[in-house]
Design a protein that fits this description.
This protein is about 80% helix and about 0% strand. The chain has ten helices and no strands. About 35% of the residues are buried.
């Protein structure tokens, strides 16, 4: 009997480890895999990239800084693909895996459109696919946050969402200038502007803020004052190069802030 127990105990331990390896939490805790906060950051960046791809497509299609915006378009598509594979590899959650299938179809179609000449018909499809990718990426962020018992990753989500909103605002701004002047374009732009300002006010009050984070948020204050008037008066238009450069500067700064919050969480 003692000899049998010696055999059964290792077998039971091996079975238990095998079962744990199939769970999402096991993958997160495996050596060398991203922390939950980092995965929230990566999935949050996918939201931003979904909007950045569409924004770059419109700016390029309008002939605004074509060398820069074409490179931004292709680089963003490649980055989205890389992040997509990280999430597929490290998040063993069936809901997330199902959503990745949904996102994959949209991202592949959008990548094909990016290689075709700009047209209003293609641009309309780009808008639709970017919304699909955003919706799917947001669902993944929400599922990842549900894995956290302390919900401490919420600050990473809030900060990371600001990156997305900068690109979403610029997307609808340039789409309006490109002739998409329907009610939905204006309403989505105004909604994104309001959400950005509300979230920024909340981040300014966050207890987790370090002096470095506060300095970056102050920088965002200054940059926002430069471009906010263009967003809020989209019908007037003008100065698209300034809008492009300043919006991307805000996005880069918020990306730094998000990484600083991830670092505070111990990743």
């Amino acid at each position: 009997m003692k000899h049998l127990n010696k055999l059964l105990i290792p077998l039971f331990s091996l079975l238990l480890l095998t079962m744990l390896a199939g769970s999402g939490m096991a993958k997160e805790q495996a050596a060398g895999s991203p922390s939950l906060a980092k995965l929230v950051d990566i999935a949050g960046k996918q939201r931003m990239l979904s909007q950045k791809i569409a924004k770059a497509y419109f700016f390029y299609g309008q002939g605004i800084r074509p060398d820069k915006t074409r490179k931004q378009l292709l680089d963003s598509i490649n980055e989205f693909d890389r992040n997509f594979e990280v999430i597929r590899k490290y998040v063993d959650n069936q809901g997330v895996q199902d959503m990745l299938v949904y996102i994959e179809m949209a991202k592949d179609e959008l990548a094909l459109l990016a290689k075709k000449p700009y047209s209003k018909e293609n641009a309309s499809l780009v808008l639709d696919y970017s919304e699909t990718m955003l919706e799917g990426s947001q669902d993944i962020v929400s599922r990842l946050e549900e894995m956290s018992k302390l919900k401490k990753e919420a600050i990473v989500d809030l900060s990371g969402r600001q990156r997305m909103l900068t690109q979403r605002i610029a997307k609808y701004y340039i789409a309006y200038q490109a002739g998409f002047r329907d009610h939905n374009t204006v309403e989505q732009l105004k909604k994104a502007v309001n959400e950005f300002e509300e979230a920024h006010a909340a981040l300014r009050k966050a207890k987790q803020n370090t002096p470095e984070i506060n300095a970056n948020l102050t920088k965002v204050d200054r940059l926002w004052k430069v471009v906010a008037k263009f967003y809020k008066d989209v019908e007037r238009g003008g100065l698209p190069v300034i809008v492009l450069a300043t919006t991307d500067n805000i996005m880069t700064t918020m990306n730094n802030v998000t990484h600083q919050y991830v670092k505070l969480l111990g990743s």
